[in-house]
Amino acid sequence: MKHMYLLLVLVLGMAASCSSSDDGPIAPPNQTLYFPPIGSNTWETVTPSSLQWDESQLDPLKDFLIQANSKSFMILVNGRIVMEEYFDGHTAQEPWEWNSAGKTLASATTGIAQQNGLIDIDNKVSDYLGENWTNMDLEKENLITVRNLLTMTSGIDDTKQLVVKSNLTYVADAGTRWAYGNVFQKLMDVVAESSATDFESYFNTNLKAKIGMDGFWNEGTIFTIFHSTTRSMARFGLLSLNNGSWDGEQIIDASFFTECVTTSQSINPSYGYLWWLNGKSQYMVPSQQAVFPGTLIPNAPADMVAAMGAKDQRIYVVPSKNMVVIRMGNASDPQNTNFAVSGFDNALWEKINAVIN
C-alpha cells in the first residue's frame, strides 16, 4: 500500500509540472482572486472545460467578434485568463484606444486625489480651477461641484463636445439634468491643479504603476484618450472587480469605488461615477434626454457594471461571476459609432451566455 501511495504522489506531481502555458501556469478553478505580477507577462490561466463551459460555443463567439471588427477579446475569471484572442493582425503588445471607457480612469484618479486629501468631491469646481472657468454666470457656475462632473449632472450644454470655455454654457442648474458630455475632462484639470502636477503624472504614479498597467494619454479630436494593451485594460478591470484593491493594497478607497458603481443620481439610475450600470429599472443614453424603461443590456448579468467607449471599447465587470470581459476594436457597425451603449452589447452577451451558462 505504501508503494501504491508513493506512485500516486509521483504521478500527480508529474501531471502538475506539465500543466502550463506560454503565459503562465494553468490554475484549477477556485474562488481565490489572482493578481498578475507587476512588470511581468506571466498571467495564470484556467481552461474553459474546468469551468464547465460549453466549448462548442467558443468558435461562434470568436466568429461574432471577427464579424464585429474586434481587435482583441479577453475573459478573466477570478483574475485568471480563460480566453485571450487577437484579430485582424492586432497583437498582445500593441496599444489600442479606450475612448470614453477611459472616463473610468479619470473617475478613479479623482477618488485617489480625494483620499490623498487634495480635493473634496462635494466642493465646487471653482475652488480648484478658479472662478469663470465656464462661460456661465458666476451664480450658476458656483452650483457645479466635482461630484456633478463625476455624475454628468453639471447642467452644461452637452451639444458642444469640445471642452473650451466658450462652449461651457448654461442649460440647467447643476444636479437637475443628466447629459452625457466631455466636460468630465475638467476632472483632470481639478486633479492637476490640486496636486500641482500634470494629470498624467499623477495618474501614472498613483494608479497605473501600482497595478502594472502600460499605456499613455493622447490628445484626441475632442478630448484626451487613453491607449493601452488589452492586458492593461484587463488589469484595471480586475482592480475594479476587487473594489479598488490590488493584491492587498487599497489603491482606490473602497467606499469611493462603491459609489462609482452605484446609482449616482435619480435622473439616470443606470449611471454611477462615469461607470454604466446594468440591471436598473430605466436608463438614458448619450445625446438624448429620453428615458428608456428596462435594463441597459438585457442579456448581461444584472449586477454587471461597464466602462464603455466609442467604437465599442468595453470593460464589463461581473461580481456575481468573478468575471471581467474586455473588448477592443473598431466599431462593430461602422454606420453607428455610439459614444457608449449600442446593440453590440446585447448581441455579444448572447454569445457569451451560450459559452458560460
From TrEMBL:
Enzyme class label: hydrolase
SUPFAM superfamilies named in the record: beta-lactamase/transpeptidase-like
GO molecular function: hydrolase activity
UniProt feature coiled coil, ranges: none
Enzyme Commission code: 3.-.-.-
InterPro entries: Beta-lactam-related (IPR001466), Beta-lactam/transpept-like (IPR012338), Diverse_Enzym_Activities (IPR050789)
UniProt domain Beta-lactamase-related: residue ranges: 72-217
Superkingdom to which the source organism belongs: Bacteria
Segment forming the signal sequence: 1-21
Record keyword Phosphoprotein present: no
Pfam families: Beta-lactamase (PF00144)
UniProt keywords, alphabetically: Hydrolase, Signal
Name this protein carries in UniProt: Serine hydrolase
